[in-house]
Design goal:
The protein is an alpha+beta fold. About 20% of the residues lie in helices and about 40% in strands. The longest helix is centred in the C-terminal third of the chain and has 14 residues. The radius of gyration is 15 Å and the shape is globular.
Length: about 150
């Protein structure tokens, strides 16, 4: 049996797929993001409709190396796609329960004060992650910052 026939692969393993790239900007730096238009089609499409989007972000308190939006981003998506608790470095994710955008820059696990949480991963940073990690880590000690997401020309 091939691994792509396994339940795990069919349900969760193939969601990191898509052909759209975005730019994420902070300060004087930027990163490229692959948007998972095939792996999270509803959420990725709704996110693209909000672009360009400038979002104040803060460092998370419970989840590890991650920043999250300091204001809700209502995407109108009610169906959760590819729910993930153990996010990877560079993951761009959305929490439909709280309408939050998150970006992971290191080791993280989606958590709330009450316990584990799950996120819909909609993309991943493919370049500029090291610079973003330095900026993201500084949010823990220096306070909030602004992230801008935009389509590539």
């Amino acid at each position: 049996m091939k691994s792509d026939n396994w339940y795990w692969e069919k349900t969760w393993g193939n969601f990191r797929a898509g052909s759209v790239q975005l730019r994420m900007i902070w300060g004087e730096s930027e990163a490229l993001i692959d948007l998972y238009t095939e792996g999270a089609p509803e959420t990725a499409s709704a996110f693209m409709e909000k672009l360009p989007l400038t979002l104040p972000v803060v460092h998370v308190a419970w989840s590890g190396d991650m920043v999250m939006g300091a204001q809700p981003v209502p995407l109108g998506v009610t169906r959760e796609e590819n729910l993930t608790r153990l996010v990877r470095p560079g993951d761009l994710a959305y929490d439909p329960k709280y309408e939050e955008i998150t970006v992971t820059y290191g080791t993280a696990e989606a958590r709330l004060p009450s316990g584990p949480n799950t996120l819909t991963v909609i993309g991943s940073v493919i370049s500029g992650l090291d610079q973003f990690a330095r900026w993201g880590r500084a949010r823990r000690f220096e306070g909030s910052g602004l992230l801008r997401f935009e389509k590539l020309p």
